[in-house]
Amino acid sequence: MTFRDLNLKKQLWNALDDLGYETPTTIQSASFNVMMSGQDTIGIAQTGTGKTLAYLLPCLNMWKFSKEPHPQILIIVPTRELVAQIVSEVEKLTTYMNVATGGVYGGTNMNTQIAMVLQGLDIVVGTPGRILDLATNGSLQLKKVTKLVVDEVDETLSLGFRHQLLRIFDFLPTKRQNMVFSATLSEEVAAFLEANFTAPIRVEAARSGTPLTQIDQIGYNIPNFKSKVQLLNHLLKSTNDSSKVLVFVSSRALADLLFEEIESFFGQKVGVIHSNKAQNFRFNSVNNFQSGLISILIATDLIARGIDVSDVTHVINFDIPEIPENYIHRIGRTGRADKNGSAITFVTEYESANLEAIEELMQQKLPFQAIPETVELSSELLEFEKPKVVMPGKLVKMARPDDVGPAFHEKKLKNKKVNVRYDHKKAMMDKYGKPKRRRS
Ligand code: AMP
């Protein structure tokens, strides 16, 4: 089957030709006719399966030109990076169409976005909070929306956007087509879908939790952070110039710490991205990684979702994700659109329970390899790795060896003044050397 077999507008065929896409992916061919029939759809698809085009193609195919300044298509996504990415995909697909698309997200000036929305948009892509703000202040009119897409609904819910989503639904007309995408169908997601959509048709790219087959997965048992750094250095040195390596860590603090550790070896080739970084910094890191300016990007799970950086050759899980589904999302950054990829996972003893949960989700065991002999393991433990000793009994705050007691500093001169009552007798003595008496 090719895209020519789908009943698409000529303008979309032309855009797909320009992009060099010929064959629809599984989720694209499976969902096309269902969505074109106007029914509510739930797509179960991991990132990397072509799910964005799976909903964009039918939405754009059904879109009709209108003089109306209000959007007909609303796409809700969990992160600002995804907003930018989807806007760019829409723009590529609509090169031959007269469609105005805009992205809205928090953390940036709202007035600029209000001005953009007021100019008139056909498609709005945004994060829940900002869409709601714009709808509430009246600048974004949602009454003309006929197609609603909620992408990555599982992530959107787990980020705590449930309330905002429901309030956005209140602004939408009841007669609309809903298209909801999720990489996993957890109980929480299933309950949310059941409560908010009626009889949606379910289409699936692959069983939820199935890793892409073209990803080579291996694991290393490794004792601690310092040893992980040694192994990482070894692996990074053995990759070639065209490699693009995404290194995932579980927290922002660890991302910064690891960046400091490996920057001394790899200098300008390394970048770091996490949610504590400013938005421009985040966009630049992703762009520099995409363009190849940096070839190693250290990231937290923030960008495990959705971000489409092409040709990632290796994903390294520096530590194992606590939420098993995140493992699938992380490794899904490589092996995209039918390319092969390599996923390497470091597992310490204290992470073995998380590994079991991942293996259960994937229904397959992770094959392990021996650590190369040239890698020097360390026995040094960082503070968070040291076993915590719980002492029974009452908690008493112990003085640290270098404790110097409560803070102490000299009083300022003006504060040293003591108020003394004026003593006339003493003043006379000081002045005349003898007591001065009034004459009688
Ligand atoms: P997604 O799962 O939507 O993040 O898409 C993953 C990547 O695959 C993106 O770079 C898409 O542009 C690309 N892609 C989507 N559909 C196709 C297709 N039919 N043929 C080739 N590449 C595609």
Short description:
By secondary structure, the chain is an alpha/beta fold. It has 16 helices and 14 strands. It binds adenosine monophosphate.
Second-tier CATH architecture of the largest domain: 3-Layer(aba) Sandwich
N-to-C order of helices and strands = HHEHEHEHEHEHHEHEEHEHEHEEHEHEHH
What is the CATH topology of the largest domain? Answer: Rossmann fold
Helix/strand class: alpha/beta
Q: Compounds present?
A: adenosine monophosphate
Walkthrough of the structure:
The protein is an alpha/beta fold and 440 residues long. The protein has 2 domains: 3-204, Rossmann fold (3-Layer(aba) Sandwich); 215-381, P-loop containing nucleotide triphosphate hydrolases (Rossmann fold, 3-Layer(aba) Sandwich), CATH 3.40.50. It has 16 helices and 14 strands. The chain has helices spanning 10-19, 26-36, 51-62, 80-93, 110-118, 128-136, 153-158, 162-171, 187-196, 225-237, 252-266, 279-291, 324-331, 352-362, 413-416, 424-432, and strands spanning 41-44, 73-76, 101-104, 123-126, 147-150, 177-182, 201-204, 215-221, 245-248, 270-273, 296-299, 314-317, 341-347, 368-369. Strands 3-4-2-5-6-1-7 form a 7-stranded parallel beta sheet, with helices on both faces. Helix 13 (324-331) links the parallel strand 12 (314-317) and strand 13 (341-347). Helix 2 packs parallel to helix 3, helix 3 (51-62) packs across helix 4 and helix 6 (128-136) packs parallel to helix 8. The mean pLDDT is 86. Bound molecules: adenosine monophosphate. Adenosine monophosphate is lined by residues 21, 23-25, 28, 47-53, 308, 310, 336-337.
